Automatic annotation (TrEMBL):
SUPFAM superfamilies: Galactose-binding domain-like, Six-hairpin glycosidases
Identification of the protein by name: alpha-L-rhamnosidase
Sorted UniProt keywords: Hydrolase
Domain Alpha-L-rhamnosidase C-terminal positions: 805-881
Keyword Hydrolase attributed: yes
Length: 911
């Protein structure tokens, strides 16, 4: 079923809601006045005016800027064409949807076949709830790229085949622009990493392009608008290639140095020039390029970089450089058959972090402290004599003597010799005055940098700056509460999340940089509540499809050079294949990823079904890094298996695959029964021995029979009380516990756990100075002690759900309908949650006023909400100071009132 059909189903209840709330609307026009609405936030493939996309039916999305109560879209019309002025006047030479009666704001392009290398302009007209036309949107654009591998003209070139050669290669060629250039695009596909230069200037501000994929299955290309960098007459193109994950020279326990795709980096480039007269010329990579080794003597995505400024060749990437001594390039085979556009948010140096404190230990040793833990690089400036070598050792902690301690993060590194020290850049000065260095093709996880030199140098706090790097996903969630520790936990969670987002989600930015599946599905909601990251997950799920074995098995880390098909890849980890597409659907209302992964999810669950016909499976790691108690792996793994089958069944229904729906619904029921038969004691309402994880997991993932839910939840609350309101869970339990409590009447208990400041808790880390989340509960643990892990990060989502009470409705996903259920938990005086949903800003903000609560709600245009307001007996609900009566009371001892809200701002007082 298409997204369009879905709307048809949901339109009916939406109109019923519209009728019920007509009184609210009338009130709104007087109380709030009218604002003329307008379609805004036009995006294509979830990106703003993207360049170089390959999708032949791209997704177009928008939202309304309309603050009136009841603002909604009753109809829309899209106009797409190649002439921006014509499009702005409503003339389409490619597609007009015609005026369609629909509230849909995610529509696939359905016009003439798109052509490569073409800029398309589009605009949206929308009609409001009364059929009145809104102001027409501004014109947005998308530009197609290659669209088909056949359109590449350049050749894959490199300097060598030697994978052990250390220095990074430069490539260059100059050319004469025949006529006046109107526009120019560089298309560059790389196995490895690159920096591209035109006439001496670095192109763009991306870092670590292209993103890591399984290079022998899918290679990404990037499109750059380089018009402004070119000049008439002679021009030069320069390329510096790095190893990245393509040529992993460092040796560690995951054997990336033995990856089947490994090779000396190689690239293919088409520089497409469009001249003023409309003619096109393409400058390509080929035998007319020259190559030389660069001053970048060594680069490893995993460890560090070594750079010798004495070997710099000034002007190497400019037109008049003399490259007579440079070598010829060689041709190379294409690394994979699939060369596709990189259509996702790029990695950038997102935040500049100056040194906070600085210590000179002696004339050749300095320690810089950024004051917070990050993923990224340091930039050093120094002066010294030629040949002075600065060693920049990066780490997350210090020894008592003030030196950088890497013992928590270098444990899986297996260096051969001493030439590739862990997280340690080597910068050799040329002696030519003020010099600086920042790695090109590496990043690290660190807070401290110890700089040592072989000759005395004078450094100051200003000599070193940190750059927080990550996929530059726009922040879309905001939280503010009366508890500073909670606010810091949220911030630290986001720091850990971003530190682990580099075109794929990772476990940690230092010790591994692995795309650990389990960590990623645990963090998916934290990610999506806080950042607009769907594009990264769409790319990563393509990595999943590349890595899946024909029998459905997925590796524990994705991408992988082969490691991880044998260990740690049970359903508790690799359920990413189902859980991530499902969440993308819930948060964006976009079923593309579910449809793309449908067969993969099916193969995956069919495999488990074959292996475990009883419905129970012990395949998995279980509740990883627990505080103390260990829950049965069979219970947790079978629950994830159940979750995957349930998602598959729901997806089958969504996609109109009725037979699959029936089959997988029955399978899900069977698994649920098998789990309950073995682990649930129906007399005592206990699962297993009644541990926190044993009780939370069935509650959260929907295994508990309806009639026993409140008893199981009461058992969980008692268990937590017996544990002194502290956590006794590992990775799987942290995902479930807070939700299991707050969804079942124990929000206060959940909050008590969430706000603890003594061991074991998130707050314990914070009061001990954490600025990111850790991998282990004890701060002085002896193993599993990365200080920048996202795997305990569900709390960053739970704060939105369990306290702010903002949730997507699976029946009308993408926040077309919002489920609002705030919890005014004991211990908090106010809590303000804001979320930029696909329809616009959602706000759920409450504060205590005397004995009552003031509660502000914002429902975005074209969306509706069901708000469930906790009301104590004897309390009444007012909205804008008037009694609010649209409640569906729940029996006589009502403890909450449920209202259906149209879009707009509401000011409730519960008194
Ligand atoms: C990673 C974890 C991961 C785990 C699974 C660790 O080394 O850092 O986050 O999920 O292994 O075994």
């Amino acid at each position: 079923m298409s997204a369009l059909n879905l709307t048809a189903i949901f339109l009916k209840p939406a109109f019923q809601i519209a009728r019920i709330s007509i009184c609210i609307l009338l009130m709104a026009t007087t109380a709030y006045g009218q604002t003329a609405g307008k379609p805004v936030h036009l995006k294509c493939e979830h990106l703003v005016n993207p360049l170089g996309i390959d999708a032949n039916k791209p997704r177009l999305t928008w939202r309304l800027d309309d603050s009136r109560r009841g603002a909604a879209q009753s109809a829309y019309q899209l106009t797409v064409g190649t002439d921006s002025i014509a499009v702005s006047q409503g003339q389409a030479n490619e597609w007009t949807s015609g005026k369609l009666t629909s509230g849909q704001q995610l529509v696939r392009y359905a016009g003439k076949p798109l052509r490569p290398f073409t800029k398309y302009y589009w605009r949206v007209e929308a009609w409001d709830q009364d059929g009145v036309k809104l102001v027409t949107s501004s014109v947005a654009s998308f530009e197609t790229g290659m669209m088909d591998k056949k359109n590449w003209q350049g050749s894959w070139i490199s300097d060598s085949r030697d994978i052990n050669l250390k220095p990074a290669p430069y490539f260059r060629r100059s050319f004469q622009a025949a006529k006046k250039i109107k526009s120019a695009r560089a298309y560059i596909a790389v196995a490895g990493l690159y920096e591209l230069y035109i006439n001496g200037q670095k192109v763009g501000n991306h870092r670590l392009d292209p993103m890591y994929t399984r290079f022998d299955r899918r290679t990404l290309y990037v499109t750059h608008d380089v018009t402004s960098l070119l000049q008439s007459g002679k021009n030069a193109i320069g390329v510096l290639l790095g190893n990245g994950w393509y040529n992993h020279q460092s040796t560690a326990v995951w054997y990336f140095h033995e990856a089947p795709w490994r090779g000396r980096p190689t690239f293919c480039l088409d520089l497409r020039l469009t001249y003023d007269d409309g003619s096109v010329e393409t400058i390509t990579s080929g035998k007319d390029w020259k190559t030389a080794l660069s001053p970048l003597l060594f680069n490893s995505i995993y460890t560090a970089e070594h750079y010798d400024a004495r070997l710099e060749q000034p002007g190497w990437n400019t037109a008049n450089f003399d490259d007579r001594n440079w070598k010829d390039v060689i041709y190379r085979a294409t690394p994979s058959e699939t060369i596709v556009a990189q259509a996702l948010q790029p990695i950038r140096n997102v935040e500049r972090i100056p040194t906070k404190t600085f210590k000179k230990l002696n004339d050749t040793t300095y320690v810089f402290d950024l004051g917070r833990n990050i993923a990224g690089v340091s930039h050093i400036r120094a002066q010294g004599s030629a040949g002075t070598v600065l060693r920049l050792k990066h780490g997350e902690r210090l020894y008592p003597n003030g030196h950088v301690d890497q013992s928590n993060i270098d444990v899986h590194y297996r260096p051969v010799g001493t030439s590739d020290p862990f997280q340690t850049d080597l910068f050799t000065l040329s002696g030519k005055g003020d010099e600086s260095f920042m790695p090109f093709f590496n990043y690290k996880g660190f807070q401290y940098v110890e700089v040592t030199s072989n000759k005395a140098v004078e450094l100051t706090a200003a000599s070193l700056t940190g750059y927080f790097m990550h996929s530059d996903v726009p922040p879309i969630g905001q939280l503010k509460s009366s508890n500073p520790t909670i606010d810091k936990i949220w911030w630290a969670t986001n720091n850990a999340y971003l530190s682990n987002l580099f075109g794929y989600p990772t476990d940690c930015p230092q010790r591994e940089k692995n795309g650990w599946t389990g960590d990623a599905h645990i963090a998916i909601e934290t990610g999506l509540y806080n950042f607009d990251g769907i594009t990264v997950y769409e790319k990563w799920l393509a990595d999943h499809r590349d890595e899946q074995q024909p029998n459905g098995v997925l590796p524990a880390i994705i991408p992988t050079g082969g490691w991880g098909y044998e260990w740690a890849n049970g359903p508790d980890w690799t359920s990413t294949i189902a859980i991530i597409p499902w969440n993308a659907y819930l948060f964006y209302g976009d079923s593309t990823l579910l449809a793309d992964c449908y067969d993969n999810i099916k193969r995956y669950v069919d495999h488990i079904n074959e292996q475990s016909p009883s419905g129970l499976t012990e395949w998995g790691l279980g509740d990883w890094v627990p505080v103390k108690s260990k829950s049965p792996v069979e219970l947790t793994s079978s629950t994830y298996y159940y979750t995957d089958v349930s998602i598959l069944a729901k997806t089958a229904k969504l996609l109109g695959k009725e037979a699959d729906y029936a089959y997988y619904s029955a399978l899900a029921d069977k698994i649920k029964s098998a789990i309950n038969a073995k682990y649930l004691n129906r007399q005592t309402a206990q699962y297993g021995t009644g541990l926190q994880t044993e009780l939370s997991i069935p509650l959260y993932w929907g295994l508990v029979p309806e009639e026993l839910k409140s008893k199981v939840a009461a058992n969980l609350a008692r268990r937590v009380e017996a544990d002194n309101f502290h956590l006794d869970v590992g990775l799987l339990g942290t995902k479930a516990i807070l939700n299991a409590l707050s969804e079942n009447g124990y929000a206060d208990v959940a909050y008590k756990i969430a706000s603890q400041e003594t061991f074991p808790s998130w707050g314990w880390w914070i009061v001990n100075g954490a600025t990111t989340l850790y991998e282990n509960w004890p701060i002085d643990a002896k193993s599993d002690i990365s200080m920048n892990h996202i795997m305990f990060g569900e709390i960053g989502a739970w704060l939105f759900k369990g306290i702010g009470g903002i949730k997507p409705d699976p029946q009308r996903p993408g926040f077309k309908h919002i489920l609002l259920k705030p919890h005014y938990v004991t211990g908090l005086n106010h809590f303000d949650a804001t979320y930029e949903s696909p329809y616009g800003t959602i706000r759920s903000s409450w504060k205590r006023v005397g004995k009552g609560i003031a509660y502000t709600v914002v429902v975005p245009p074209n969306s509706t909400a069901t708000v469930d307001i906790p009301v104590a007996s004897g309390q009444r609900v007012f909205e804008s100071k008037k009694p609010f009566t649209q409640a569906s009371q729940r029996g006589q001892n009502a403890t909450s009132s449920t209202y259906t809200l149209q879009s707009g701002t509401y000011q409730f007082d519960i008194e």
